[in-house]
Amino acid sequence: MKAPVSAVRRRLSLALRDRVAGPDADRRAHAIWLAPGERRFAPDDPICRVQGHAGMYAGGIRALLLQSLHPLAMAGVGEHSGYRDDPWGRLQRTSEFIAMTTFGPVGSAEKLIDRINRVHETVSGTDRRGRPYSATDPHLLRWVHVAEIDSFLTAHQRYAGTPLTPTEADTYVDQAAYVAGRLGVVDPPRTVAELRSQLTAYRPELETTPGSLDVVRFLLREPPLPVAARPGFWLLAAGAVEMLPDYAREMLGLRLPGRLGALDPVALRAVAGPLGRVGTGAIAWALGDPSEPRNRARSSQRSPRPTG
Question: Could you give the number of structural domains in the chain?
C-alpha cells in the first residue's frame, strides 16, 4: 500500500500548491526555500514554527473574516483587491509574501516588502458612508496586522502537536513585528498581552457591513472551488469560525442552524473544533510530502518542515 498512499499524498500536495502558489509554483518555491542567502529567522524560531504550520490555512480564513469587520479596511479590500474576480491570485500573492518574508532570503524579502509598500500607495478612497481610507494609514495597517497575527497564533496553539510556550508566543509576536513595521505599522505589538490589548481597542470601530457579509457568503457559502473540493475546505472553515471571538461570529451572523444556533463556546468547540482538526491534519499530511521544496530545504537546514 505504500506506493498508492504516496501517490495520493503527492496528488493532494500538488493540488494545494496549484491553488496556493499558482502556475508559477516551482519558481516561487525555489526563490523562497532553495535559493541561497541569509535568512532573517532560524528554522526553529517561533515565527517559522507558526507560519510553517498547517494551521495557517484555518488561521488565514479566520483572519479574513475578522479583518472584514473593520469598515474602512473592508472598503479597501472590496474596491482594490479583486478578491471576487481573482480570489486565487490574491491568495497566491498573499501566501508568497508571508512565505518569502518568513523563510526566504533577506534580500528577496526586503525587495518584496518594498514592492508591497509601493502598491499600498495607490490604494485609497472612501467607504459607503463617505469616510476616507488609505492602505498607508498606520491605524488600518495595525488592524490588519493584529487580526492576522492573532489568527495565526490562535490556530497554531489549537492545532499544533507542540504549541508555543507563553515565552515563545511572545517571541512570535515580537518577530512578526518586523515586517509590520516595514509596512508602516507604528508601534506594533511585541507580546501576546499587547496583541490582545490592541485587538480589543478596535472593537468600537467594527461594524457589520454589506462588504463583511459578502466575505462570509464568498468564503463560506460560495467558495471558489469545484464541488468535489468544497467539503475539505469547509472542514477548515468550520475550525476558522469556531476560533473567531464570540462577538465576531455574532456580527457576521455565523450561528449554527436551528436550536444549535445558541451553542455556547464550549459546545461550539465540541462540534466544529474536531472538523477543523481533521481538515488541518489532512493539510499537514499533504505538506509533509518529501518531494516538496520546503521539505528538501529542511534537509539542508534552510527552513522548517510544517508539522501537524
Answer: 1
Residue 249 lies in a domain: yes
Residue 307 inside a domain? The answer is no
**What pTM was computed for the model?**
0.87
For 136-185, what is each residue's pLDDT tens digit? 999 999 999 999 999 999 999 999 999 999 999 999 999 999 999 999 99
DSSP state of 122: T
Q: Which of 73-77, 85-89, 231-235, 291-295 has the lowest mean pLDDT?
A: 85-89
In the chain, the DSSP E strands lie at 124-126, 132-134
Domain of residue 147: give its range: 2-299
Q: Is 308 within a domain?
A: no
Q: Which long-range contacts (CB under 8 A, 24 or more apart) does 247-252 make?
A: 247/203, 247/206, 248/65, 248/66, 248/69, 248/206, 251/69, 251/206, 251/207, 251/208, 251/212, 252/65, 252/68, 252/69, 252/208, 252/212, 252/213, 252/216
Residue 306 lies in a domain: no
The letter for the amino acid at 145 is H
What is the Cβ-side half-sphere exposure of residue 260, based on CA atoms within 13 angstroms? 10
